[in-house]
Amino acid sequence: MGLDAWSLVLIFEVVVFLSMFPLLVFGWLMGARGRDPIRDAPFESGQPRMGEARRRYMMQYYPYLIMFVAFDVVTMFLFTWGLAFSAMPFAQGYLFIIFLVVLVGPLSYALYLSGKRELW
Amino acid sequence: MTGLLALPTLHDILGFVLRIITSRTFLEVIIFPGFLNVMLGAAFLTWFERKVIARVQLRIGPLYAGMSGILQPIADGVKLMFKEMIFPELADMKLLMACALGLMLVAAAPVIVIPFGEGWVIANMDAGLIFVFAVISLFPSLILLIGWGSNSKYSFLGALRSLFQQVAYEIPMWLSVLGIVMLTGTLNLTEIVLAQQRVWFIVPQILGFAVFFTAVLAELERIPFDLPEAETELVMGWMTELSGVAFMLGFLAMYTKLYLMSALITALFLGGWSGPSILPQPVWFLIKTFLVAAVIVIIRGTFPRVRVDILLRAGWSKLLLIALANVFVTVIIIWLGFGSMWGI
User: Which of A70, B130, B218, B326 could join B169 in a cystine, given CB atoms 3.0 to 4.6 angstroms apart?
Assistant: First the structure.
């Protein structure tokens, strides 16, 4: 059957879904049910519960997420460059190398800033 | 035109079903490179890991279910299926179950493009490598949803750590395979394997292999990078509040990911199915895959855990720089004219 790649992806995912969803239903039907305030409390190592879980957390590592947003796109463009690289003459290939070398500068400055945790 | 109005007979229906069941596509999707292969591989790996770690720690490991405990994963699965699904009172139960199912869907998806042999692939996609990376990058969001939905501190902290870790190691992981893409000029995994018939990519891309392997350990959240489920700090990380079948799906998804990432390392760096023709191609592929998985498991048995700030900085500074160095090495290889060894 000459199916294209994306319909095969869809078929495979449907197969996985159809075999896993009944397990959830089965587990729901077979397992015991009931409410109990102690048992339904979130696990906190046996201690009485201390406040809500959905609150503000200190994100000391937030700058790393910002760096991801910035350098993620660069990486994706690198792939298009890499695909064409071996067919590229030297005169066009070296420009991107210079770009990569220049990229190390901002990258290390971003790393330096994200290492100063008192800023965040 | 009378054929349109006539109802199909039982013979027609049976013939149609038989034609579908015996078609190569169906067999590929359901049995060999597809669903059954993934499930059995992941289940086997749970047993394999317990056995190998037991050997590392001078224990025996699972013993009673089947021959040397080989049926233990099935026993565990049946046990978990009959367990009560306990969710915390303020947790979003439907979200948790949906995300556990989603993890399984996402974890199994890379098998679609991984070639287990020449032609032993479900979809020979031209953008196969990008497909794998796109699918893998869905994990952090699902894990964050599980952490948020559980409404439990351990889960949420585990999910946050998982998010940071996977995000920090995604870029070195992509950059480390850039060298392979440059050498072969393709993103199709079958063609990448075919390009290493003479020399495996682990030889010219040894730096890339080191970075990719480390990044895979971090993406899999395994020791030495298992901070998201550090048992001594966070109980079970983002899986703390999953129970019953939902836990089984999350757990199975992690082992599916382990299996398929080992397969991806095999296809990218270890020559895929290539090997002496005394054994069929998929057998070679599976042997290499389980060897890679064995290395990952032995690392779990022997190494301590790293600290979270060291982990993030190492991912962003050292690994990224080594991956960039690997790109430069590849550039030099190509400019010196050795690129033709990998089929350009």
Answer: B218
Q: Which of B25, B248, B316, B318 to mutate to test the interface with A (most CBs of A within 10 A)?
A: B316
- In which residue ranges of chain A is pLDDT below 70? 1-2, 120
Question: Is the CB of B249 less than 8 angstroms away from the CB of A13?
Answer: no
Please name the residues in contact with B117: beta carbons below 8 A apart, sequence gap of 6 or more.
Answer: B273, B280, B281, B282, B285
Number of domains in chain B: 1
**Separation CA B291–CA B148 (nearest Å):** 36
Mean pLDDT, rounded, of chain B: 86
Q: State the CATH number of the domain containing residue A71.
A: 1.20.58.1610
Burial string for B166-186 (b: 16+ CB within 10 Å, else e) reads: bbbbbbbbbbbbbbbbbbbbb
Instruction: Confirm or reject contact between A98 and chain B (CB < 8 A).
Output: no
Q: What CA–CA distance (Å, rounded) separates B182 from A82? A: 5
Asked if A36 has any chain B CB less than 8 Å from its own CB, the reply is no
In chain B, what residues touch A55 (CB-CB under 8 Å)? none
Range of the domain at B165: 23-342
pTM of the model: 0.89
**ipTM of the complex as predicted:** 0.85
Q: CB–CB of A12 and B111 under 8 A?
A: yes
Quick check: A64 contacting B, CB < 8 Å?
yes
Query: Do residue A86 and residue B30 have CB atoms under 8 angstroms apart?
Result: no
How far apart CA B310 and CA B238 sit, in angstroms, is 21
- The domain in which residue A45 lies consists of 5-119
Q: Tell me, letter by letter, the H, E, C secondary structure of B223-247.
A: CCCCHHHCHHHHCCHHHCCCCHHHH
Amino acid at A41: A
> Between chains, do A40 and B122 touch, taking CB under 8 Å as contact?
no
Q: Does A100 touch chain B (CB under 8 A)?
A: yes
**Mind listing the pLDDT tens digit for each residue in B254-271?**
999 999 999 999 999 988
| B7 assigned to some structural domain | no
> Cβ distance B140 to B196 under 8 Å?
no
- Say how many domains are in chain A: 1
Percent helix, strand, coil in chain A (nearest 5)?
65, 0, 35
Selected residues 271-310 of chain B with any CB under 8 Å from a CB in chain A:
308-309
Angle at alpha carbon of residue B264, lines to A8 and B53, rounded to 5°: 125
- For the residues B95-120, what does the mean pLDDT come to? 89
User: What are the pLDDT digits (tens) for B137-186?
Assistant: 898 899 989 988 888 888 888 888 888 888 888 888 988 999 888 888 88
